[in-house]
């Protein structure tokens, strides 16, 4: 599906409300998300950084983000939303960020109001940029997109740095600047999620990451409060890493993987997910056409 159609589809889903976005950290996990029946994909900055061997402190560049996000977006018919950290610089850098992420085929990005280098949203030690500076970034982002369906999501980390009321005030300022959705990071209980939804009327995104400061509320609870999008950034990544750790430990002890075959994706299952046969058919057709043209030449 073309990127502009994915964006149009996703914007309609957000307006309707109730979209769950599991996190994909590579193209194959995006394919699994589609197969599972979800309607969209989330690409976590932590997932991209951690997968490259870095902590989530803004070490990857815009080009690296866009390249990896493009692989994921091309692998699925689902719309993909990507973390864009702080926008990779000031307002002028945010403009380029939007253009690069649009070209990558994404349906939207979120930008946060932390000082660069940023920190994970559920860790202490964060610092915020002034409201006016973030407003300028959001306005620039909205003006820089070529497709009006490309969603600009403003994330605020103010709850854990300043206060809940400051987070609400920042959210309203970002919405007025042109943000399509607001992402309040690190709310600490169910009551805060509900209160934020009552006070901020712009469509909201909730982050249900594991092992953070926020409770793991169900999507039904959040949708009932009024949240339009719920992301699950790192669940699949964490599950995969734990499974890999178990595999390596077992292999080291046993000297064979034979006892673990039942826990593995089979070769057949992998090839089906990759649509391996379509490449074989293409190769056969190309070779068949070549032989046909060659025989025609010989018969002349």
Can you walk me through this structure?
There is one protein chain. With 300 residues, this protein is of the alpha/beta class. The protein has 2 domains: 3-233, Alpha-Beta Barrel (TIM Barrel); 241-299, no CATH class. The protein is built from 13 helices and 8 strands. The protein has helices spanning 3-16, 27-35, 45-51, 62-74, 91-103, 131-144, 158-161, 164-177, 190-199, 219-225, 235-254, 267-274, 276-299; strands at 19-22, 41-43, 80-83, 108-112, 151-156, 181-184, 205-207, 229-232. A 5-stranded parallel beta sheet has the order 2-3-4-5-6. Strands 1-8-7 form a 3-stranded parallel beta sheet, with helices on one face. Strand 4, helix 6 and strand 5 (151-156) form a beta-alpha-beta unit. Helix 2 packs parallel to helix 4 (62-74), helix 4 runs parallel beside helix 5 and helix 5 (91-103) packs parallel to helix 6 (131-144). The model has no long low-confidence stretch (mean pLDDT 94).
């Amino acid at each position: 599906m073309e990127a502009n159609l994915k964006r149009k589809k996703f914007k309609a889903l957000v307006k309707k409300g109730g979209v769950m976005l599991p996190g994909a950290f590579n193209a194959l996990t995006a394919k699994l998300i589609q197969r599972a029946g979800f309607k969209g994909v989330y690409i976590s900055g932590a997932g991209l950084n951690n997968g490259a061997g870095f902590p989530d402190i803004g070490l990857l560049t815009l080009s690296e983000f866009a390249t990896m996000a493009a692989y994921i977006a091309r692998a699925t018919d689902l719309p993909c939303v990507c973390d864009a950290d702080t926008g990779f610089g000031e307002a002028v850098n945010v403009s380029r960020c939007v253009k690069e992420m649009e070209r990558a085929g994404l349906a939207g990005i979120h930008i946060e109001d932390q000082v660069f280098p940023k920190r994970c949203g559920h860790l202490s030690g964060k610092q915020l940029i002034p409201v006016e500076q973030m407003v300028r970034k959001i306005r620039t982002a909205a003006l820089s997109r070529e497709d009006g369906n490309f969603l600009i999501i403003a994330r605020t980390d103010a709850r854990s740095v300043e206060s809940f009321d400051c987070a609400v005030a920042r959210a309203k300022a970002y919405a007025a600047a042109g943000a399509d959705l607001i992402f309040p990071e690190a709310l600490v209980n169910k009551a805060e999620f509900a209160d934020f939804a009552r006070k901020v009327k712009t469509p909201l995104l909730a982050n249900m990451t594991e092992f953070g400061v926020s409770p793991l509320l169900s999507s039904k609870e959040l949708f009932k409060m009024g949240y339009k999008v719920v992301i699950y950034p790192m669940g699949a990544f964490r599950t995969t890493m734990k499974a890999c750790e178990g595999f390596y430990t077992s292999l080291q002890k046993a000297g064979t993987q034979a006892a673990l075959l039942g826990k593995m994706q089979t070769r057949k299952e992998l090839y089906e997910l990759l649509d391996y046969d379509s490449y074989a058919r293409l190769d056969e057709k190309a070779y068949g056409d070549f032989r046909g043209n060659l025989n025609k030449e010989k018969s002349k």
